[in-house]
Amino acid sequence: MQKHSLPIVAVLVSLSSITAFGAAVDTPETRRKEAERYLQATPPKAMFEDMADKMAGNVPADQREQFKQMMTSNLDIVALTKAMTDAMVKHFTTEELKALADFYGSPVGKSAMHKFGAYMADIMPAIQSEMMKAQSKAGEGATKP
Predict the structure, then answer these.
(1) 23, 18, 33, 27: which is closest to 100 by C-alpha?
(2) What local confidence, expressed as pLDDT, does residue 85 receive?
(3) What is the mean pLDDT of the chain?
(4) Contact 52, 113 (CB under 8 A)
(5) Could you say which residues of the chain have pLDDT below 70?
(6) Distance (Å, rounded) from C-alpha 126 to C-alpha 119?
(7) b/e code 116-127 from CB counts within 10 Å (16+ = b)
(8) pTM of the shown model
(9) Minimal CA–CA distance to 47: which of 132, 122, 118, 128?
(10) How far apart are CA 126 and CA 66, in angstroms?
(11) Which residues, in sequence order, are CB contacts of 85 under 8 Å at separation 6+?
(12) For residues 88 and 35, is the Cβ–Cβ distance under 8 A?
């Protein structure tokens, strides 16, 4: 009987090792590592520059360069990157951050990210308009008895 139980124990030990190592450990350290990997795939500086460039299309032509300069030159990328990393560590699991880093590090993810600035530029006027409408409605409600 013991001859047959040894291979079964070996298989069970192997399976438990695969399960233990197959799942990502979720600690602040593993989250930070994956968040940093994600930010390498989607560098914040490039993202902000691209977004400013695309958003400048909504600004009068003679003010575009000034707008892009204002949106990018005074940004503390180091502070923003730290804030982004800290927020990702706080809100996402290691597995989620790994999936984001994997996706945005892939060719299709890079392509999607490259289009994100144009997407934001397209929707920003609508967002601003809707926010102004909401603010106006809120102001109207405050003046009513």
Answers:
(1) 33
(2) 97
(3) 84
(4) no
(5) 1-24, 142-145
(6) 12
(7) ebeebbeeeeee
(8) 0.65
(9) 118
(10) 22
(11) 32, 35, 36, 39
(12) yes
Q: Residue 71 contacts by C-beta under 8 Å, 6 or more apart in sequence?
A: 48, 51, 52, 55, 56
DSSP string spanning the chain? Answer: -HHHHHHHHHHHHHHHHHHHHHSPP--HHHHHHHHHHHHHHS-HHHHHHHHHHHHGGGS-GGGHHHHHHHHHTT--HHHHHHHHHHHHHHHS-HHHHHHHHHHHHSHHHHHHHHHHHHHHHHHHHHHHHHHHHHHHHHHHHHH--
Structure token pair of residue 114: 């490259």
With contact defined as beta carbons under 8 Å apart, do 110 and 46 qualify? no
Tokens of 37: 């990997």
pLDDT of residue 23: 59
- Buried/exposed code over 63-82 (b: 16+ C-beta within 10 A; e: otherwise): ebeebbeebbeeeeeeeebe
